[in-house]
Amino acid sequence: MSSPLADEPVEPAGDDGEPLAEDEYADYADELGDAWEVIDEHHLEASYEFPDFETALAFTNDVGELAEAEWHHPDISLSWGEVGIEMWSHEVGGLTRADFVMAARMDRLYADYGE
Ligand SMILES: C[C@H](O)[C@H](O)[C@H]1CNC2=NC(N)=NC(=O)C2=N1
């Protein structure tokens, strides 16, 4: 079951253009699946596992479509059986609510793979 965050809109960076501080994003981070970790208070990192390369590629393509639809793009690494994600808001050089919404959306996509 993914977080209700996944139902939120992916809004651009906060109106002040500043990244969220730890106390501002802590509740969002608590809502994400176990795949996610906050790194250096700067970006979100996740690793999703799959049975083979073909399935990892399909998930990568799903994430790519989501990113294009929401115009908010992660860094994606694709390997045999694994997809690595790094997610932050480039325009503010750190984390915004959009990153946590995207992470929750990716958790919801991953749930469809039944892994
Ligand atoms: C030029 C383009 O509009 C910008 O790069 C958009 C698109 N995708 C983006 N993706 C991410 N992760 N952060 C951004 O600030 C961002 N901004």
Could you write a compact summary of the structure shown?
The chain is of the alpha+beta class and 115 residues long. It contains three helices and four strands.
How would you explain this protein's 3D organization?
- This protein is of the alpha+beta class and 115 residues long.
- The protein has one domain (19-111): Transcriptional coactivator/pterin dehydratase (Gyrase A, domain 2).
- 37% of the residues lie in helices and 19% in strands.
- It has helices spanning 22-30, 53-70, 97-111, and strands at 36-39, 43-49, 75-79, 82-87.
- A four-stranded antiparallel β-sheet has the order 1-2-4-3, covered by helices on one side.
- Strand 1 and strand 2 form a beta hairpin.
- Helix 2 (53-70) runs antiparallel to helix 3.
- The protein starts with 21 loop residues before the first helix and ends with a helix.
- Ligand H2B is lined by residues 71-73, 89-91.
- This is Putative pterin-4-alpha-carbinolamine dehydratase.
- Residues 1-21 are annotated as: Disordered.
- It catalyses: (4aS,6R)-4a-hydroxy-L-erythro-5,6,7,8-tetrahydrobiopterin = (6R)-L-erythro-6,7-dihydrobiopterin + H2O.
